[in-house]
Specification:
By secondary structure, the protein is an alpha+beta fold. It has helices spanning 4-15, 27-37, 42-55, 59-64, 67-74, 80-96, 105-109, 116-127, 136-145, 155-168, 173-186, 206-209, 266-272, 315-321, 329-338, and strands at residues 226-237, 240-245, 255-256, 259-261, 276-288, 292-303, 311-313. The longest helix has 17 residues, at 80-96. The termini are far apart. The structure holds iron/sulfur cluster (SF4).
Length: 339
């Protein structure tokens, strides 16, 4: 792997993608982009990032933004606890670090929502510290270059790879970390066949030389996903629609359409909602979270009075002020279509 460091740096310097958060080494920019990029593709993040920076250009504005506005800015990215942690971390920076982003690995790691990967990325990219940032891309490239048949889902393997890479880190640790990640994203890709013919490491890569690149790294057992069924009520009274805040569990504090577990029949719904004037079966949607899969049926229901347990809002108000999780967006599109 040591032989590959220079090849990788040269390749990265010539081929790096110009992304908005790479215009400078401002840790605020790198931090927000790294959190957004967790579980979301780069192309999808760019618009969110630009919108976020326009409204919250610095740590202070993030520390002072209301939670509802922050969640609205985050709407569509999912994993809303990450957005809440951003605000908590910004408040900690304002209180404990006089508003300056901390410049040591341990201080960065002490911020809410920042784990060893993000701390390593910010430390190396923004402060040139000799820290590694190990994600799935890095582990895949490392295992292939060294032809190691390891279980990359095992945390001990991750730690071991981190220690090995730390020993060969060049002075440009940030470029190295970004280079190996980018190689894993665009050339040494997961699933399918890596693009070895255009890879700068092809002459050094042991897996490629042994024709084992598609066998490495070893496939890890997928976690079992729990499946749940829900019925959603798209309740309309004149020009307003019913929303409620989720009180606990997954997506806590996010807004949602009223719903109940299980697939309900017309009769069951009529018993549950006596104020129904008109009811029609509406769209279905399936949403997959990390550990759960929701199957959702919905009914479009016009009622003759507002149930006070819900918050009744117009479409314009939803658009401006209410962050709906991605799982509910198709239903929002549906009420807009029918309005
Ligand atoms: S030669 Fe192929 S397997 Fe090896 S690092 Fe490059 S893309 Fe990955």
């Amino acid at each position: 792997m040591k032989d590959c460091v220079e090849l990788l740096l040269n390749w990265y310097n010539e081929n790096r993608r110009m992304l908005p958060w790479r215009r400078d080494k401002n840790p605020y920019h790198v931090w927000i982009s790294e959190i957004m990029l967790q579980q979301t593709r780069i192309e999808a993040v760019i618009d969110y990032y630009e919108r976020f920076m326009k409204r919250l250009p610095d740590i202070q504005s993030l520390a002072e933004v209301s939670e509802d506005e922050l969640l609205k800015l985050w709407e569509g990215l999912g994993y809303y606890s990450r957005a809440r942690n951003l605000k908590k971390a910004a408040m900690k920076i304002m209180n404990d670090f006089q508003g300056n982003f901390p410049d040591s690995y341990d201080d960065i790691l002490s911020l809410p929502g920042i784990g060893d990967y993000t701390a390593g990325a910010i430390s190396s990219i923004c402060f040139d510290l000799p820290e590694v940032a190990i994600d799935g891309n890095v582990m895949r490239v490392y295992c292939r270059v060294n032809c190691l048949d390891l279980d990359v889902g095992d945390l001990r393997v991750k730690k071991e790879i981190g220690e090995k890479i730390k020993k060969i880190l060049p002075k440009d640790s940030g470029d190295f970390n970004q280079g190996i990640m980018e190689l894993g994203e665009v050339i040494c890709i997961p699933g399918g066949v890596p693009k070895c013919e255009i890879c700068p490491l092809k002459e050094k890569c042991k897996a490629h030389l042994k024709h084992k690149e598609t066998e490495i790294p070893r496939k890890v057992q997928k976690i079992k996903i729990k499946e749940e069924e829900y019925t959603l009520f798209l309740l309309r009274y004149k020009d307003s629609y019913a929303l409620r805040k989720r009180e606990s569990g997954l997506l806590k504090n996010m807004w949602e359409f009223p719903n109940t577990e299980g697939f309900l029949t017309y009769e069951e719904i009529r018993k549950m909602i006596p104020s129904i004037q008109r009811i029609a079966l509406s769209i279905t949607n399936t949403h997959v979270f990390t550990h759960k899969k929701w199957y959702m049926n919905s009914y479009y229901i016009e009622v003759n009075k507002k149930d006070p347990q819900y918050t009744w809002v117009t479409l314009e108000e939803i658009e401006k002020n209410y962050a709906l999780p991605t799982a509910f967006m198709p239903f929002y599109e549906e009420i807009k279509r029918r309005h």
